[in-house]
Amino acid sequence: MKKCTSCVLPETHETIAFDNKGVCNICTQVSVQKENVDWVQKRKDLDVLISQYKGKHDYDCLIPYSGGKDSTWNVYYLIKVLKLKALVVRFNHGFMRPNLNDNTTRVFRELGADFHDFSPNWKITQKLMLQSFLDKGDFCWHCHSGIFSYPMQVAVKFNIPLIFWGEPSAEYTAYYSYDQPEEVDEKRFNRFINLGISADDMYVRLGGKVDKRDLSPYQYPKLKDLRRINYRSVCLGSYIPWDVKKQSKIIAKELGWKGDRVENVPEEYSYEKIECYMQGVRDWIKYIKRGYTRPSHLTSIDIRNNRLTRKEAVSIVKKYEGKEPPSLEIFLELVGISKEKFYQISLSHTVSPWKFDMNSIEKGEKLKDFDKWSREGKMDKKDAEEQIKKWSSTNKN
Amino acid sequence: MQKNKLKNGHQQIKINMNAAIIDYGMGNLTSVNNAIEYLGFDCEIIDNPDLMSKFDKLILPGVGAFEGCINNLKTKNFVKNLNEEVLTKKKPILGICLGMQVMAKKGFEGGEFEGLGWFDASVVKIRPQDDTIKVPNIGWNKIDYNKENILFQNLKDPVEVYFVHSYHMDCFDQKNIIATSIHGQKITVAVNKENIYGTQFHPEKSQDLGLQILENFLTV
Amino acid sequence: MKRIIPKLLLKNSTFDPNQMVLVNTNKFDNVKEIGEPVSQAKIYQSQVVDELIFLDLDARKFSRPPNFKIIRNASEEIFMPFCVGGGVNSIDDFSLLLNNGADKVSINTAAFLNPKLIKESADIFGSQCVVVSIDYSLDLNGNYFVYIEGGKTKTSKSPLDWALESEKNGAGEILLTSIDRDGTGNGIDIELTKKIVDSVSIPVITSGGCGLSSHFSDAFLKCNVSGVSAGTFFSMRDQNPIQTRSHIKNAGIKIRTKT
User: Looking at the predicted structure, is the pLDDT value of residue A172 above 80?
Assistant: First the structure.
């Protein structure tokens, strides 16, 4: 499998292309837009935006929150620095780690804010995890969809039109010129977030076997309802420069936010993806499908920022990648499938030319809080079988 | 009319403006209507020429051939009112595809016919120099456009839009041409003279960029 | 510019007779219900595809024209060209669909049984509105034959002959679908597609068998088709038209780059 000669991303990475020196397009991309942005003007635009909504509703804004470094910075900046009255909304995916829960308590006691935390029906979550794993080789559909849809629903229901997300995505849509802020709307949701499956589509994929209302937390609100409240759903990172390392230090200092180890990821990256105890399985499935995962991704970013040499990156990748996470056994219980079935399903989503070697699976290390990760609510194996049977009968693989 | 608005792709602070889509028997009215409503503006499809005076802006769609278009406009009594609304009252109008072509002095599709005469131009067949290039031109093409023109504000390059046509407007006054494209030869794809606008391509079928162009016209 | 065209197959759902859903098929069989038509059309629009094809698989079975209500709902949300087919029999069916937002209408069985329909509809609506859809399969002797009635009835005509005849009758475009490769991910039938593209002067869209992004590029480079249509490819894999477009662009093919 070909890898970039500059970073360590392989040819199975989405949209990657190599030039005649073998350097990938992500390495050669110049992020002109970020560097040429007039941040002074952006700050003025932010003030104008806020002034249009501040004090006019029960809350000045709504802030979606997960507890990671970016959303914690987001709440910190909007509430403490800009002094907005915010309703913080969290769609709880069900796999919060203990440190994350501690962070959340500590952060909100320190900052002070109304916090709306919603946990969807676990039995539906299980079905959704299995179905999206079968159909797309990615079990996180419920989380992706819920995180971006649910806060929008709250905005409509509680009439809080200004919604601030955190870091902007790299892309700027065609509809806006380069100097316009990114809108976190349904189009973006459909492009990047929901794996190309809406709640209505998922209802069909589940064979209509759930109550349609069970999928409502995952439903993006209708455009006409959002327009009625005159909504603006933007990224704070479109108005202020986003510096992850600096921000992580500030929230650690000001709010006592703590990072955490993630399965099969080196310690130096303990500020990333600390929220979910299924992260290890998620990363593992990516490895099975594409032959690379989080360590490759993180070290490649460091190479591009001159924090690591390629040689060092290769050695980190060799040490940490390609290891089966201990959390896999929990995942298997929660979706009611055998390990064999897990590999069969994952392999069916392999991206050519990578070929996963079933015979050389090493095991990764357990993390300190492993025993605290809930295994309650195991899926009935018969129900899982039924869902899988339907998939097998119509799947060429 | 409220001039300042928050710019958001799908949401608009309601501008007090209404547009009329002219139904003279030729044109994909539904698509244009849907696009305008999606953008958040009021619009109505009208087949009675006398109603045009009640609207702030006019849209003239068109699918088919030149002769049929101008004849329909004549027999449905639109021509006199159009001239009044557009030439005298200077009401903004957007012609789409055939709707743009019919604004020319002459059209040469299947004969020689007189158009509305608003542009000193002739509508002639596209003749690509390269015979591997097929006519009609159906599909997406990149356009070169006048960035200063109000119709093309807030666009990000490359601007690729959807075409379905065999003829194009050959303008004698180059100043009227605000966008061109290449299809075996240079073709005129958008025109503007004062309050009169025309696009050869279908903005209502050109996704985001098309919607932006349509919105630009609606907020002129 | 070359086109990426998702194919949306409509069918009455098994769990709710009042709801039409989107399905994937495998060799025109093995139906899998995968989504809601308007929702998927919106999603494809967000992912900036070039065109859509809607085919109503139940229309012929129930002797009715394609479900125009769904088309009308879709046309309120999507602003790109789309083609509708399935059970189209007459000029009235054409009108119904074009008036409800469709830009092109696809005819298959009806055109085969009555080629005059092609000319009639092209004369009235313009050839750019008329797409002749040709489903084909390879027999044991290695010969290609056209199949009609949703792939159920073998005819004695070859796809090449039928494509040439359709063009002569005024078709604006040909939509080729390989029944053998449908839903298999084994790749487009390059040989037959190339033969047909080289023989007709109207645009050809090929479909059936996309399993990798490179299948799209191959079809464009080796056959010079105008468009590649795919159903299963986008809905059952970790694949997104934006990625596919990127792949095609990197292969040096002229395609819309805006995303």
Answer: no
